[in-house]
Amino acid sequence: GRLGQVLGMEIKEFTVHGEPYGSLFAHHWYIGCDQQVDVQQVRDLIDQTLCEVNDDYVVERRHALQEVVVEVLPTTWFTEWMERQGKLGGQHKFPRVLNPKHLASWQAFLAHCSRDRLWPAGGGAAGAGVFCPHPNQHHQRVSGRRFYGNGHFA
Fold first, then answer.
1. Exposure of 147 by Cβ count < 10 A (0-12 exposed, 13-18 middle, 19+ buried)?
2. Where are the strands (E) in the chain, listed by range?
3. Whole-model pTM?
4. What is the DSSP pairing of strand 24-32 with strand 146-147?
5. Secondary structure (DSSP) of 90-127
6. What is the C-alpha to C-alpha distance for residues 48 and 144, in angstroms, rounded to an integer?
7. Between 75-84 and 100-112, two packed helices, what is the crossing angle to 10 degrees?
8. Burial 59-83 (b: 16+ CB within 10 A, else e)
9. What angle do CA 154, 109, 153 make, to 5 degrees?
10. Contact (CB, 8 A) for 28 and 17
């Protein structure tokens, strides 16, 4: 897709869900990529592209959708979750939009994943993490590192 072409990255999986964010809402994107990426750049390009191609998104972005959160994860996590759901194989695709049942299962799975097990320190997608400009307002569980927009991960 466009994101991969513009940023020179291969996105093997992705999904999104809406979540409360202050008094409004945020979209939380989970991107499966095994390369080092600039998470803030990924977030900005998703938001910009959706504004360009979807008039309804522009309206939502102005009035109800306060933020876009992006979390970059190893693609193996998507595959492993599907396998645990008994849905591994060519006939089954990772849900592009997570319904409440899938979201609860996905978040429980992420809470138990160990980044060190899949991406040893100093290797793999070292720039992977979460972009959340206001991390204290929501987003309590993080399976990886948070990106705070100031160039720092936690």
1. buried
2. 13-21, 24-32, 65-73, 130-131, 146-147
3. 0.76
4. unpaired
5. TT----SB--HHHHHHHHHHHHH--HHHHS-TTSS-TT
6. 25
7. 120
8. ebbeeebbbbbbbbbbbbbbeebbe
9. 10
10. yes
Look-up: residue for tokens 């060190």? 116
Query: What is the Cα–Cα distance from 117 to 123, expressed in whole angstroms?
Result: 11
Q: Which residue has the tokens 């695709």?
A: 93
Letter for the amino acid at 114?
Answer: S
- Torsion angle, CA of 138/142/148/151, rounded to 10 degrees? -170
The pLDDT tens digits for 15-43 are 999 999 999 999 999 999 998 888 999 99
Phi, psi of 110, deg, nearest 5: -65, -35
Q: How confident is the model at residue 1 (pLDDT cuts 50, 70, 90)?
A: confident
User: What's the token pair of residue 18?
Assistant: 């809406």
Other beta carbons within 10 Å of 98: 20
Residue positions counted in the chain? 154
d(CA 112, CA 132): 21
Calpha distance 17→103 (Å, rounded): 8
Does residue 90 have a pLDDT over 90? no
* Rounded CA separation 43/70 (Å): 6
